[in-house]
């Protein structure tokens, strides 16, 4: 797990190949040529690793965004070791991160009171500046008022019971 959290792609490959469903070939064993039975496993493994490589940098990006309220795009690109010519693809990665966080938020609405740390961050790109909004504070304020409103309703209900 520690190698996975450090971004070791080979560890992801090994874990996937051990844990994924195995594919059975309906054909007989061919002793000549390559082993075609491993081809579906290799194809699935490569597709999985491509998705991992696209998302492995997301926790690092989230960490940088949590540190700042405004951040120049070039500064964040330098932090993430993005080369000068790849800024357009970096903006696309930022927007995909935002889409992933929004989709996670939609999936967990109504899923309980457990707070998800990945959903307390929102940002937008304005020209060459990234503006970060931490929504966790606003959520705490609203939770405070909702909790006190329910307490007030309980107290008024008890007072009505005692009075009658």
UniProtKB/TrEMBL annotation:
One Gene Ontology term, aspect cellular component: eukaryotic translation initiation factor 3 complex
Pfam families recorded: Paf67 (PF10255)
Any GO molecular function: translation initiation factor activity
Lineage of origin: Eukaryota, Metazoa, Ecdysozoa, Nematoda, Chromadorea
UniProt key word Ribonucleoprotein: no
Name of the protein: PCI domain-containing protein
Keywords: Cytoplasm, Initiation factor, Protein biosynthesis
InterPro entries to which the protein is assigned, alphabetical: eIF3l
């Amino acid at each position: 797990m520690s190698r996975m959290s450090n971004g070791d792609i080979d560890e992801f490959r090994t874990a996937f190949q051990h844990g994924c469903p195995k594919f059975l070939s309906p054909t007989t064993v061919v002793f000549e040529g390559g082993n075609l039975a491993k081809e579906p496993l290799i194809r699935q493994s490569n597709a999985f690793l491509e998705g991992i490589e696209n998302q492995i940098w997301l926790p690092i990006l989230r960490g940088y965004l949590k540190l700042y309220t405004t951040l120049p795009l070039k500064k964040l690109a330098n932090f993430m070791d993005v080369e000068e010519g790849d800024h357009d693809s970096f903006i696309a990665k930022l927007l995909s991160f935002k889409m992933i966080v929004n989709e996670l938020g939609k999936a967990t609405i109504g899923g309980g009171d457990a707070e998800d740390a990945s959903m307390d961050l929102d940002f937008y790109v304005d020209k060459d500046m990234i503006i970060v909004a931490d929504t966790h504070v606003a959520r705490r304020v609203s939770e405070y008022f909702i909790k006190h409103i329910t307490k007030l309703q309980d107290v008024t209900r008890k007072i009505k019971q005692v009075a009658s």
